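Justification of resources, computational component.

The compute hours requested in this renewal are based largely on the per-chain cost of generating structure records like the one below. Each record pairs the submitted sequence with a full structure-token output. That output is archived, and it is also reused by downstream analysis tasks.
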Amino acid sequence: MQTWSYDIRNWYPEEGSPYVGNGWIGGNLPLNGHGGPGHPYPASLAANYQGAAETFTPVPHWLNADVRFEGRRVRPCFVHFHKVLDLKEGTFSTAYTDSESCVRVETETFCHRGDPALSPYRLTVTALKAGRIGLTLRLDRTPCPEPASVAAAVAADTVAWQLDFGDSERRIAQGLRLLRAAPACPAAVVEEGQAVGLHVEFERAAGESACLEVAAATTRGADPRPAMRAALDRAQKSGYDALRRAHAAAMARLWEGFDVAAEDPFLERRLRGAMFYLTAGYREDVVWGGTPSSLSSKVNWGNCVFWDTEFYMFPPLLLTHPELARNTLLYRHRMLPGARANAAAGGARGARFGWQSHLNGSGHAGPFEDEIHVTADIAYCAWWYTQSTGDTEFMDRCGRELIAEAARFFASRTAWNASLARAEIHGVIPPDEHVWDHYAGAPVNNSVMTNAYAAWTMAKGAELGEGLATPDERAEWRRLAAAMWLPRDEARGIYLEYEGYDGHPIKQADVGHLFFPLLVTRDADAIRRNVRFYADRERETGLYLLHSPFVYAAALSRAGDAAVVRRFCELAQRNATGPFEVPRESNYGGGVCTTAAGAFLGLALYALLGIENTGDRLEAHPCLTGETGRLAVSGLHFRGRRWRVAAEPGADQATIEPL
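The structure output for this chain reads:
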């Protein structure tokens, strides 16, 4: 079985459409592989938030070609259908015979990992009977918001436009250039409705082909057109084959040293696929948090940055691509002025990061901004990153400030219950926001996950805050952290999701997060008891967001419960759509959710292999059963070295060796 690619020879529903991306631009691919009229997908640009409202704005897709034979639009016959998503090289190809057996259509495309503005494609049409083949290449604004202004420019082999969505500093320039036509053929400019494009026609005998090699370029800025034209000129000079080789070389650098070897080939491919989908939304030269929708065309949740970044996408990136994990924290550090303004607006001190954020740090979630736990999540990851990488320069320049400002915020939001001599946090929405909109109907007091991570943040802020907080302030942080109340049901020996929790069904693993990545107790029985109780409450909803199996499995790995870790791994693998195993949020939810890709990778690394990377050395407590089989992951990063971690079923020790 080939585990570096998805090689598909059957039709699949639209929701199974895969996406590609290079950390700057990305999008889903249409079923026929090339689009045409009715193409449903726009493309996404990293952090393309426009205007004062910072509205995420998709842009026209780079690949949108209409194929006609004798003037009639060809329609795929899904019996003669072939698609390949090459995970290693980052290319997507489609081939089909039309329903009337007139032509064979083949398309290949990629978002250039080394030259991110460029998204080339090659379209080849072979006549199965003599006739005229017509090909129209388009940039089409139809699936996108209407821009405030459009400035189009056309030439013999190029169409381009500048789209202004009301933000003079973030205009979009796009260009489409025909690099080569074989046989050579002049192109006619097409301007129709909301599209601009190029049209070519060929008379072909049966068995003869027509091939177009095309480059699209997308740039952003106050005047993005020079950069767009320069990108197209680079593409013209290189040609399609050289662009493809350069892209494959850049993808090789992205994958360099990293590999998964699993006894179960389906698990092996799913893990490689999860890494492909996760890294499609990140690149080293783009400082951004990333979003649950990544750079797919399925723009969900306003394409905001959520706490998903810290607790579901960050953990696998930390071990596999620490430079990308660092960027997510640099993004948060850039937002500190806005986070301070958020705190001040709510009458608090320090910095409160938005539950949904874009560019300036303000929150975009309305009442859900009461999910203040995200601020502690960011602080924890700043420390976790430094522990795993040894990057003390980051901690000195950014990490300590993030942690201290978060500690200051939580100290100002903490109430002292004098009658019970304990610290409490009131008026919050727990990470499980269904508490607010399905059950309590209002913010609650003492969300156990919020309190636990707030206490950790204040304690760590006191430890690391010299020079950033006064001695009295740090002493107060220590006092509040030590006295923070975590609600419990002592009779059942479980933590309560929040004060007054009555056992209702839940949406996700708040209490599970007490045992990963934080660990409030090493008592294995207590971990099992809490996970079992809350996993059953989540099962009542039928939802099972993929990040819950990750958290529960990582917690149970610390308790040494391999059999149940295996069951959560099986549950997590349901959250993949179609033959390309596109990650989705839940076992019945639609749409792309890269949170799920990160969570599945995290489950393999932190639960199946049981990796621990917060101490002075890399450790592991594997939880593999015979059904799971052997598992090894190579190229992991820890303290400036690359490592291989491998384990056998039933083993309580892993092989950890430097590379």
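The longest helix spans residues 392-413. The CA atoms of residues 105 and 465 lie 62 Å apart.
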